[in-house]
Amino acid sequence: MDILISGGSGFIGTELTRQLRQSGHEVVRLVRHPTRNADERMWDPDALWLNPEAVERADAVINLSGASISRLPWTLAYKRVILESRVNATSTLATAITRAEKPPTVFLSGSAVGYYGDRPGEVLTEQSPIGSGFLPKVVDAWERASQVAAPVTRVVNFRTGVVLGAGGLTNTLKLIARLGGAGPLGSGTQHWPWISLHDEAAGIRHLLDSTLSGPVNLAAPQPATAAEVMRTIAEQVHRPYWLPAPAWAIKGILADAGRELILSDQNESSELIVSDGFAFTDTDLGETVAKALAG
């Protein structure tokens, strides 16, 4: 397939591009600077501009654009960046798809487990209702922007949680542990939906040829709590797991980011994509963390 991808040079995008090319696909990356390579096409999502030729030649479009939610603090200005970076990029791609004479067969657009908000005691499926808070509103607007293309192509929103790999949030958690700060975050019993970087990219590849549409959860089938993730990382870097961070302190220092990134309980089910035939490679948290830290 000829695949057009935004965010192709990011943490997930780099691995996805590698896997796609290894599988024989042609990948063209959208960039915000003047093109320097044959596999690049320029766009300006802030101005909602994209050369329609880029979409006309694509069999599939994959959207990974969006400002990092791990960057702290979430000031009012940065909250606006988090929202607009996602909605503008998605709207630009979706609009271009609707205007194409020969639209791509599928539009895979990034999404997040943040849609569900804090849901202790629940198993979250794609049919679970939206939660409350900042991130649910962002994800809802993000997904709605992609659905503009639904009349002309299959649209899939892959809802991702914590991606464990060599980089991204893993590096932050590793640094915390190495500095001796690993310990219970709040109660530590809140579920953190995790997935390996390899399986994240492989899951997106699976969705290229699937018949699924709408939201699809991407999380390893074995759930883990925040305590289990942090304890595993501490053990791997040979540091103690002991220093608790009370919920009140996390909320006081990080406000919405603390409540929604660290303390939210989200037991995300991957049953839909598994029943569709996708087989996870990395299902053991300890082995996944070890590979991530070794990379």
UniProtKB/TrEMBL annotation:
* Ranges for domain NAD-dependent epimerase/dehydratase: 3-211
Q: Please name the InterPro entries in this protein's record.
A: Epimerase_deHydtase, NAD(P)-bd_dom_sf, SDR39U1
Q: Which domain of life is it from?
A: Bacteria
Q: Name one Pfam family in it.
A: Epimerase
Q: Which family does it belong to?
A: Belongs to the NAD(P)-dependent epimerase/dehydratase family. SDR39U1 subfamily.
Name of the protein described by the UniProt record: TIGR01777 family protein
**In which organism is this protein found?**
Subtercola boreus
